[in-house]
UniProtKB/TrEMBL annotation:
Keywords: Cell wall biogenesis/degradation, Glycosyltransferase, Teichoic acid biosynthesis, Transferase. PANTHER family: PTHR34136, UDP-N-ACETYL-D-MANNOSAMINURONIC ACID TRANSFERASE (PTHR34136:SF1). It comes from Crassaminicella indica. InterPro entries: TagA_TarA, WecG_TagA_CpsF. It is an enzyme of class 2 (transferase). Catalyzes the conversion of GlcNAc-PP-undecaprenol into ManNAc-GlcNAc-PP-undecaprenol, the first committed lipid intermediate in the de novo synthesis of teichoic acid. Pathway: Cell wall biogenesis; teichoic acid biosynthesis. Belongs to the glycosyltransferase 26 family. TagA/TarA subfamily. This is N-acetylglucosaminyldiphosphoundecaprenol N-acetyl-beta-D-mannosaminyltransferase. It catalyses: UDP-N-acetyl-alpha-D-mannosamine + N-acetyl-alpha-D-glucosaminyl-di-trans,octa-cis-undecaprenyl diphosphate = N-acetyl-beta-D-mannosaminyl-(1->4)-N-acetyl-alpha-D-glucosaminyl di-trans,octa-cis-undecaprenyl diphosphate + UDP + H(+).
């Protein structure tokens, strides 16, 4: 469907991140799932942003099935929440710093507190909730640059976070800007990740549907996606 996704597993994605952290310039990481790929079919801006990103990981089991059906080479799902965890572990061991932008008021703060408790070596430069006006954006960016974190995690939901990252990437002093969506809620403890068994069976989407049934409308695109994949084959 025209969206480029990096091949490789979690370890490969992590290694790319280490390269990014140790190279000049800000690199953008996007973590699309099936829903987002379908959205990008109608939203040309989102489509272009994903294809411009420096690392795009397949954060949805549907993408792996599609790739297998079409022989495109994606082998396993790489989730944003897992990659974020590994980046944080690296920060913990190498005294690197982060900033979290997004989530409801207090969610980013709670997430930072929990990160600090679990991984005390991570230097937390600051956080800001994700409910601000457009005219406040530039001040937020300037403040982030003043604090100069190595990594900026952005959790504003799709496609807001992708548009935001693309708009400010060139201005940012951070080495990585990564869209993490609901991962901040997982760190804050306000959303629970699916138990391991759901993850293993590729049913994390189903668990999310059980817990957040109002998402069913957004998820209606999943069967449409599979039909499209089969027809394209
Ligand atoms: N969010 C935000 N500002 C907004 C919209 C969303 O900070 O204007 C946050 C929201 O509170 C949540 C995160 O973005 O913490 C991800 O939202 P959601 O789960 O709806 O997005 P998804 O990751 O499913 O695209």
């Amino acid at each position: 469907m025209g969206v480029c996704i990096d091949q490789g597993n979690l370890e490969d994605a992590y290694n790319r991140c280490i390269e990014f952290i140790n190279t000049k310039g800000c690199k953008m990481i996007i973590t699309p799932n099936t829903e987002i790929i379908m959205r990008a079919q109608k939203d040309s801006k989102l489509f272009q942003i994903i294809n411009k990103a420096d690392l795009v990981i397949p954060d949805g089991i549907g993408l792996i099935y599609a790739s297998k059906i079409q022989g495109k080479g994606l082998k396993e799902r790489v989730t944003g929440v897992d990659l974020m965890y590994k980046i944080l572990e690296y920060c913990n061991e190498n005294k690197k710093s982060i900033y979290i932008l997004g989530g409801k008021p207090e969610v980013a703060e709670k997430a930072c507190k929990n990160i600090k408790n679990k991984l005390p070596g991570v230097e937390i430069k600051g956080c800001h909730d994700g409910y601000f006006k457009e005219e406040e954006e530039i001040n937020i960016i300037e403040n982030i640059n003043r604090l100069n974190p190595d990594i900026l995690f952005v959790a504003l939901g799709v496609p807001k976070q992708e548009i935001f990252m693309d708009k400010y990437k060139e201005m940012l002093s951070a080495r990585i800007v990564m869209g993490v969506g609901g991962s901040v809620d997982v760190w804050a403890g306000t959303v629970k990740r699916a138990p391991k068994i759901y993850q293993k069976l590729g049913l994390e989407w189903f668990y999310r549907l059980l817990k957040e049934p109002w998402r069913y409308k957004r998820m209606m695109v999943l069967p449409k996606f599979m039909i499209k994949v089969l027809f394209q084959k």
